[in-house]
Amino acid sequence: MKIAVLGMGTVGTGVVKVLNTNKEKIESLTGEEIKITHVFAKNVDKARDVDLSGIEITDDINDIYNADIDAAIEVMGGIDHTYDIMMELLNNGIHIVTANKDLLAEKIDDLTEAANKNNVHLNYEAAVAGGVPIIRTIENSLNANQISEVMGILNGTTNYILTKMTVDGWSYEDALDDAKAKGYAEADPTNDVEGIDALRKIVLLSRLAFNRKVDIKDVPSTGISNVDAADIQIAKDLGYIMKLVGISKYDDSISASVEPIFLKADHQLASVNYEKNAVYVNGNAVGETMYYGPGAGSLETASAVVSDLIHVLTQPANGNFQPAEDAVIKNKAVEYQYYLRFGDSEADVKKALDGKVDYKLNTAHESVVAVTAKLNIDQLQDALEGLDVKAKYPVIGDE
Ligand SMILES: NC(=O)C1=CN([C@@H]2O[C@H](COP(=O)(O)OP(=O)(O)OC[C@H]3O[C@@H](n4cnc5c(N)ncnc54)[C@H](OP(=O)(O)O)[C@@H]3O)[C@@H](O)[C@H]2O)C=CC1
Ligand SMILES: N[C@@H](CC=O)C(=O)O
């Protein structure tokens, strides 16, 4: 099989390394040689971390369109321009393997329609949780279940930052710089730290798990850029660990969100550290299941990309998953306990909350802190009226 690799950065170089290192194993599975004939990149003269001799490196996409290839691996990122490229390739009967959750979260239904029309694969295992095999697990291995919940730590960069701050006492800025240097963060890490990357992943997981087309604009997300180190420390003192968590539940409608959450320290997700990701899936036959592994990184992500390529060679392209119905997203009724940190005095907090909500007060820290009983968002807003709330996070795993 002849392939083009679009993008030769962290993931692209990992793909070349995996294909070279595991060549014999891969050929024994596929029964044929996988040959990279073309690489598409921005800067054709850039020194790369891998040997690309014998491969045509081009910055002209027409060279890819005119190439005699069977499949393209898209690991360049980007949305609009990359969408046009993928559509052109799919419509030319080229299989696509992609790690591009930014594009998929917006356009997966259009791309799938084009792939199915042209009877080619559109595979994207690497787009959610990097090296963790979760896409085909939900799509195939759990397809006998009605899935009621998907929940996970879905971004390696933010989990790396929060772990460095919680466990190693690093500053936010130092931890982010380190995540960038290690290749976990996106070229522009804004989407990582603002929760957008995790949002895109929970959208893709919800679509698969609940068999619904999910509009990303319907799912709220909050990142970690405004997290105060004081709350991470108080969380530890109270027996919680702060994690950026994507949650999606199905019960007639879908409730879904991404936000920093205080997890009880013995919660399964609380011990998922550094760049590792984990996804919890609850199905009505299998019950609770959990998938853990590297959420980012060169070889780690390439593991999923190359697996998708092997899938192209060993499985028929007989229809990529396409949900029939649109999702209805409703978050109003969701109830959580809440951690609250106030700028007010103990007396003022008590005056406002007493009689309205059940809560436990903690005055051992510089600020007054409370953990409430379960509340929905309207009840919470009502209880907090007039108070100076410095921090507010859902709490999971307390009951
Ligand atoms: N890094 C990770 O751990 C993970 C990344 N992903 C996804 O994989 C994709 C690639 O990520 P990553 O490898 O980290 O990104 P990098 O920034 O390391 O690499 C991007 C590559 O794409 C090329 N490229 C970018 N824009 C263009 C363009 N307009 N035209 C031609 N070439 C272009 C760049 O060329 P040049 O080198 O010449 O500048 C570079 O080689 C992204 O979609 C990302 O979200 C998914 C899971 C994990
Ligand atoms: N920037 C992403 C890379 C993988 O999707 C992350 O940090 O998880």
From TrEMBL:
Domain Homoserine dehydrogenase catalytic residue range list: 133-310
Pathway(s) served: Amino-acid biosynthesis; L-threonine biosynthesis; L-threonine from L-aspartate: step 3/5; Amino-acid biosynthesis; L-methionine biosynthesis via de novo pathway; L-homoserine from L-aspartate: step 3/3
Alphabetized InterPro entries for the sequence: Asp/hSer_DH_NAD-bd, HDH, HDH_cat, HDH_CS, NAD(P)-bd_dom_sf
Residue span, Aspartate/homoserine dehydrogenase NAD-binding domain: 7-125
Designated name of the protein: Homoserine dehydrogenase
EC number: 1.1.1.3
Protein source organism: Salinicoccus halitifaciens
Keyword Amino-acid biosynthesis applies: yes
Homology family: Belongs to the homoserine dehydrogenase family.
Enzyme class, spelled out: oxidoreductase
Keywords assigned: Amino-acid biosynthesis, Methionine biosynthesis, NADP, Oxidoreductase, Threonine biosynthesis
Catalyzed chemical reaction(s): L-homoserine + NADP(+) = L-aspartate 4-semialdehyde + NADPH + H(+)
GO molecular function, one term: homoserine dehydrogenase activity
